[in-house]
Amino acid sequence: MTRTLRIGLVGYAFMGAAHSHAWRTAHRFFDLDVTPEMAILVGRTESKTRAAATRLGWREAETDWRRLIERDDIDVIDICTPGDTHAEIAIAALEAGKHVLCEKPLANSVAEARAMAEAAASAAERGVFAMCGFSYRRTPALALARQFVQEGRIGDIRHVRAQYLQDWLSDADAPLTWRLDRDRAGSGSLGDIGAHSIDAAQFVTGQSVTAVSATLETFVTSRPLGGDLVGLGGVGHADAPRGPVTVDDAALFTARFDNGAIGIFEATRFALGRKNAMRLEVNGSRGSVAFDFEDMNSLQYFDGTDPEGTQGFRRINVTEPVHPYTANWWPTGHGLGYDHLFTNQAADFVRCIVAGEQPRPSFDDALQVQSVLAAVEASAGDESRWSPVARAVATQDTPTQTTSIQTTSTNSTSTNSLSMHSTSMHATPMKDDRP
Ligand SMILES: NC(=O)c1ccc[n+]([C@@H]2O[C@H](COP(=O)([O-])OP(=O)(O)OC[C@H]3O[C@@H](n4cnc5c(N)ncnc54)[C@H](O)[C@@H]3O)[C@@H](O)[C@H]2O)c1
Asked: pTM to 2 decimals?
């Protein structure tokens, strides 16, 4: 008899497909104590949702996320919709006793993110957990970089250099999509891709951003309302009316970390030729690491203690069984791709739920990233003056407890109770020792 964790996923496009792939494969490559069951996919249009459910491998299709949450045969709600929907869905799901995996950025404002973190803290007391999908943490090379920092190989961290460069908005006639609408997306390149850089920088260094000085720019202030979508962008119809772009096209900021390090961040979707250059370099007193997602199976490492004369950056092929996540995949040298991040993420999430542990990044961690985003906007709106990052952690210290989730057996229709022993963590971003 196989115990299952019954998943309901909301949104079936880019992230919906990536998460579907992860739920399909996680238990086939990771030794999980429960098998994710792809139960229900939610969209808004019935015919399109049914077609997506069939294509992506879901048992049922549903057109209202509220009905999904009301069902007692669902254990996990996976939120893959634009940011304006995250808070409402996540809070309702947590209150209904469902574990939640929510895409990033956590919300469209600090107030929403704080409400979500509070709901997550209260749910964690009942053994119900929430995690935010900062998927780049699950890149083996970035997890290895973090390991090097923890092992002391980098020493005292002085510089953090984080860039996230894409080019799909370079064409001024690319169509206006929800990602360019502040009401739906919260912000532009800042929250869309800069948020990943902030989370990755804090994850690798183990340090928090405490203050920022920022500049935001919108290069193209209106775009065609109609067009042919291709990937994230596309080609706008020349004769279509144009609507306003209400978010930033590029975000730059310098930052201070709580250990005295300084950082420089850049996020843009206008860096022609850069497709998904999510880069991070960290320089410390003993060594440096450098990563570029366009070469995602590699980590550049400089060991400052190497003998003089043979020093130099070495390129580590992060595909050895000793590296994070890679033992679950292919033989040495047979690299991973973008989709593997989501499978690694799903496996980490399931393991934590089964163990009754808080998965990371928690909603508290994601609230902290949201606070950095808010500080960037405050600084950019105030002539780049330094703006402090509000410290906002909702989790309470809670006692160890025993909780249960419903699981079904694949060879019967009856439900079983999987008893879990859970300890709620005091989830500050600094205490995370999990990749
Ligand atoms: N982790 C990552 O690397 C990564 C990458 C891209 C996007 N994201 C995040 O994932 C989320 C979704 O982005 P995406 O790129 O998949 O967007 P998308 O436009 O490709 O898909 C959004 C989906 O949400 C559905 N939807 C919208 N409102 C809905 C509602 N009220 N009820 C049900 N379905 C609804 C749409 O029909 C669509 O299926 C965003 O928060 C985004 O920031 C994360």
From this structure: 0.92
